[in-house]
Specification:
This protein is an alpha+beta fold. It has 9 helices and 16 strands. The longest helix is centred in the middle third of the chain and has 33 residues. One of its GO terms (molecular function) is protein-cysteine S-palmitoyltransferase activity. Its EC number is 2.3.1.225. Keywords: Acyltransferase, Lipoprotein, Membrane, Palmitate, Transferase, Transmembrane, Transmembrane helix. It comes from Asparagus officinalis.
Amino acid sequence: MYSGSALAATSAAEPRVYQAWRGSNIFFLQGRFIFGPDVRSLFLTIFLIVAPVAVFCVYVARKLMDHFAHHLGISIMLVAVAFTLYDLALLLLTSGRDPGIIPRNAHPPEPEVYDGNTEVGGVQTPQLRLPRTKDVTVNGMTVKIKYCDTCMLYRPPRCSHCSICNNCVQRFDHHCPWVGQCIGLRNYRFFYMFVFSTTLLCVYVFSFCWIYIKKIMDAEQTTVWRAMAKTPASIILLIYTFISVWFVGGLSVFHLYLMSTNQTTYENFRYRYDRRSNPYNIGLVNNFKEVFFTSIPPSKNKFRARAHGDKGFNARAVSGGGFMSPNMGNGVGDMEVGRKAVAWDGEIEGNGSDLEVGVNNEMIEDKDGVGVGVGFPSPSPDLNQVRVTTESNPRQGSWGRRGGNWDMPPETLGLSARVGGSELGNEGVR
C-alpha cells in the first residue's frame, strides 16, 4: 500500500501527454495549443495579413475620413481592423488545435492470418501476419482501410498518416505550410473560413483603394494616373491584393467544390471521384451541413493529462510463435513507402512500449487509407483501447531524425534480442 503523499509524488513525477508526445508537433502553454513542426511559417502568414492592413489604415482609411461623413470615415478603418482580428482568430483556431489526431496503439492489433512457419532454434513455429488492408462498408460501398505501422492501428475511412507531423489524422485533407498544421476533421471548417475571410479582406482593401483614387480624381479634376501618383501606398496595395486574391480566392473556390462533392484535397488528387462513385457524397445540402452545421467531435487526446507508462511492450500472446507486420517479407512494390518490416514477438518484456516502425530519409507516407468521416465508427477495435505510454526519456521512444537519417533508439535494439517464446534469432527489426 502506498500513502497518499507517495502516490501524489509518483503522479507528479510522471510526464504529461504533450511532454511524452511521439509525433513531431510543437506545444505551447503547457499543451493547450498544438502546432505542426513548421509553426514558424505561421509568423510569416500573420505578417502578410497585418502589414498591408496597417498600411491601408495609415495611408488610405485615415485619408478617407476627410472625404466621408465623420462616422462613415471612422467605420472604414474600424471594419478593416475588426476584419483583420477576425481573420487572425480563425488562423489561430486552424493552426493551434488538434486537427483530429488518432492516438497510437500501445501494441499491434490481434493478428489473423497465418504466414507459414519460421524456424527458431531448430523448431518450426507458425507466424501470424496482420493483413495489410481490410474492407469496410461505407454507405453501401466497400472501402479499403490500411494498416499503419507507425501508429499500430488500422486507419479508419478517410484517415491518413501525415509524414510531416508523424500522426494519423481523421478526414485528412492536407498539411498546410501557411498555417503550420494538418487540416483534418476538427479544423477544416475554420481553415475554409480563414481562407474565405482573407479573400474578402483583400477585396475590401482593393475596393477602398480605388475609391480613394477616385476621390482624388474628383477633387483635383485630374486623370487616374496622376491621382495614383499622389498615393503610392494605394498602388502597392492594389498590386498586392490583386495578386493575393488569385491565390486565396482560387483556394476558396476549389474548397467550395470539394465541400459540395464531399471530397478532401488528398482524395481529389489521389482517387479522382469524378471518374468513379464517391462513397462519402450524401448530397449537396447535406455535404455543406456536414462541414458547417455539425458539432465538432472532441479531441481523442488529452494533452495535459498524465502519461501513465507501461513497464513493457505487452504484445498479445500467440501460441506457438510470434506475429508479423503486414509489410514483413513483402517485396518493395508491396510495402508501404519508407517503412521497415518488423517481426513482433508474442511476449516481449522490457522497456519496449515505445517500439515503432520508422520511416526512411524521404519521409514519405503511402496513404492508401484516408481519415475518419463524421459518423463512421472505427473499424479497428484497438482504437478504443488506446494507451499513452512513456519512458524515462520519452523523446527517445520515437524514431528521431538526426543529420538527415532516421536513427534506431537503444531501447529498440535491446528488443531485437528476443522473439517468439524464447529467443528472437535473426527475426527482429529488419
